[in-house]
Design goal:
By secondary structure, the chain is an alpha/beta fold. It has a single domain, classed as Vaccinia Virus protein VP39 (Rossmann fold, 3-Layer(aba) Sandwich), CATH 3.40.50. Helices cover about 40% and strands about 20% of the residues. The protein contains eight helices and seven strands; from the N terminus they run ααβαβαββαβαααββ. The chain has a seven-stranded mixed β-sheet with strand order 3-2-1-4-5-7-6, with helices on both faces. It starts with 12 loop residues before the first helix and ends with a strand. About 35% of the residues are buried. The structure holds S-adenosylmethionine (SAM). S-adenosylmethionine binds next to helix 3.
Length: about 220
C-alpha cells in the first residue's frame, strides 16, 4: 500500500483535546522503558529535546523518571501545547520541562529557540506526520551533541487498509471515534522499516539502528559518533 500523508500539525482544538484527554499511559510508559533499556548508558543528568512533543505526556513521564534531566519540548501546534501547559501545571513540573512552539525544520538563527547540543533527543509519533521525513533526521543532526543519544518511536505502515482497519479495531476500539480515525489515518501515513532505513542512510545516520518492536511500532535508537 502506498503511503497516504496526513496533515503535519495537529492544530484543531477538537483533535488536540481528544489526543490530550486520551489514556496513553500504557504506550507512553512503554516508550520510556524501551528508551531506558535501549540507551542503557544514558548519564544521570543533562538536557533532553523532545521533538513533536504534543501535549507533553512523554516529556513529563521522562522528567518524572529522570529527575536529573531538564526537557526542552517542541511542537508546532499551539493547541497541543496549551494542553501540555495544563499538564505541566498539574504535575508542577514547569521547572523541569520547557514547552516551546517550534515548527520543524527549526530556523537556523533564532534568539528564542535554544540550540544547545542536546545529549539526548527523543521523539514519538512525529515522523509519520512530516511531509518530508528528512526534516526529522536533519533536525536531530543539527541539535544533537557529539556522542548524543537518540531514541525515536513511530508507527509502521501495514500492508493494506484491511490490516490498518484490523489494527485500529484491536488497539483503538474503546477510544472516541475521532481518535480511531486519527489512528487509522496515522497507520496509512506511517513508514515501513525499509523506508526508515533508507532515510537514515540518506541522512548519514547509519550509526542508528532501526528495529521493529511490535505489530505496529518501530524504534530508531543509538549514540551518534
Ligand atoms: C501524534 S502527535 C505525537 C505527540 C507526542 N509526541 C506524543 O507522543 O504524545 C504528533 C505531533 O507532532 C506535531 N508536528 C507535526 N509536524 C510538525 C512539525 N513540522 N513541526 C513541529 N511539530 C510538528 C503535531 O502538531 C503533533 O502534536
Amino acid at each position: 500500500m502506498r503511503r497516504i500523508p496526513e496533515p503535519e500539525l495537529m492544530e484543531s482544538e477538537v483533535q488536540a483535546q481528544a489526543y490530550a484527554q486520551a489514556d496513553f499511559a500504557e504506550p507512553h510508559q512503554r516508550f520510556i522503558e524501551i528508551l531506558q533499556s535501549s540507551l542503557a548508558t544514558l548519564p544521570q543528568e543533562g538536557i533532553a529535546l523532545d521533538l513533536g512533543c504534543g501535549a507533553a505526556d512523554i516529556s513529563i513521564r521522562f522528567a518524572e523518571a529522570h529527575p536529573g534531566w531538564q526537557v526542552e519540548a517542541w511542537d508546532g501546534s499551539a493547541a497541543m501545547l496549551r494542553y501540555g501547559h495544563q499538564a505541566l501545571e498539574q504535575k508542577k513540573l514547569q521547572h523541569q520541562v520547557t514547552l516551546r512552539q517550534v515548527y520543524l525544520p527549526s530556523p537556523d538563527y533564532s534568539s528564542e529557540i535554544p540550540q544547545l547540543n542536546y545529549p539526548l533527543i527523543f521523539s514519538n509519533s512525529l515522523l509519520h506526520h512530516l511531509a518530508d521525513p528528512a526534516v526529522l533526521w536533519t533536525e536531530i543532526k543539527k541539535q544533537a551533541a557529539p556522542q548524543g543519544f537518540v531514541f525515536v518511536m513511530d508507527l509502521l505502515r501495514p500492508e493494506d487498509q484491511v490490516q490498518a482497519a484490523a489494527l485500529t479495531d484491536r488497539y483503538a476500539s474503546e477510544e472516541p471515534s475521532i481518535l480511531q480515525r486519527d489512528f487509522f489515518n496515522s497507520l496509512l501515513a506511517a513508514y515501513q522499516i525499509d523506508e526508515v532505513q533508507a532515510q537514515l542512510q540518506a541522512a548519514q545516520l547509519s550509526d542508528l539502528a532501526a528495529q521493529i518492536i511490535s505489530d505496529r511500532h518501530f524504534i530508531v535508537w543509538g549514540q551518534l559518533r
